[in-house]
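Tokens for Acetylornithine aminotransferase. Go.
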Amino acid sequence: MIPAVLPTYNRAPLHFVKGEGSWLVEEDGRRFLDLGSGIAVNALGHANPDLVAALTEQANKLWHVSNLYEIPQQEALAEKLVASSFADTVFFTNSGTESCELAVKMARKYWFEKGHPEKVEIITFSGCFHGRSTAAIAASGSEKMVKGFGPVLPGFRHVDWGDHDALHAAINENTAAILVEPIQGEGGIRPLPDQCLQGLRKLCDEKGVLLVLDEVQCGMGRTGRLFAHEWAGVDPDIMMVAKGIGGGFPLGAVLATEEAATGMVAGTHGSTYGGNPLACAVGAAVMDRVADPDFLEDVNRRAGLLSQKLEGLVAAHPDVFEGVRGLGLMIGLKCRKAPADLVKAGYDAGVITVPAADNVLRLLPALNITDDEIAEAVSRLDAAATAVEAA
Ligand SMILES: Cc1ncc(COP(=O)(O)O)c(C=O)c1O
């Protein structure tokens, strides 16, 4: 018999009842160090007091009003994002997938309004992940994502990650945008080197193509800068954000330059919940923390400490791990064993990790994980690796 919850996930038999900072507590009392953060969502850990205060304060005043009215919490968060980024304007969504939908619509509408309705094609890269909607699975293009779901939304071209010649060949008079994650998350923590992102920006400018970045997983301080593209010193035209921006409350956003957003006038897009007062109150509290340069400096310091310890872990288990990659606190351990086995062994050792493609074990801890927790996490990963080695 089908379970009451549609069985689209292979769930681990863990039932968490409480979260405190970087710790998750299971129903039976076991405490787990959370290096997954709900897949890069709980950027400030579980039950962060500032976020709880922001949420409860707003909850006591007003939960929801329609976007038919002005929402001051939404305006305040948009202003913070605009002040801290390349963007001139922001639309709030509830998820990364919805941000993808709008990014695709915005890029196409831009060219339509410029008198180029033929420019609809969006170039994406192998291994990418942009969500599960019809547009997002078409953007990915992989058989695993699209098979069985009927006609695939047209207008996407897929290029192999790192194949510069194929990228140049894919651009034509119908190209609207290039859509790329500065660091592929689901694809296995694959960073786009700075010079490649700079090259992409240059190529987009030369060819008259919009650059759309998906920072749903790598944004909001995860790499040690507020947004990952800042490391390369180039700006996109449109950017998708979600996950960490709500610190665990469902919230996403599309950030854009005034020019890229020109087609999105009243009536062209909307969302019942997007930019809801509760979500934006929490989002503002997240921004106050993660956009603070001192906080980001600390993220970089913690990332250095964790990477250093992980190098030691890899060296101690050469049969299990091949290497460490990633940026900031978005880390991948390239494995020689099945990452799923390591995730499972991690459960026994009391540490939560997340598998990714390309035989990678993902570590996405809370950005405020402490030094002691980093040491404890690596010792638990060591126990997990030892168990997998022995199996
Ligand atoms: C890079 C990227 N884009 C988009 C998405 C989709 O976000 P959501 O699951 O919030 O719809 C994800 C989710 O993992 C992601 O990692």
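Residues 76 and 177 are 29 Å apart (CA to CA).
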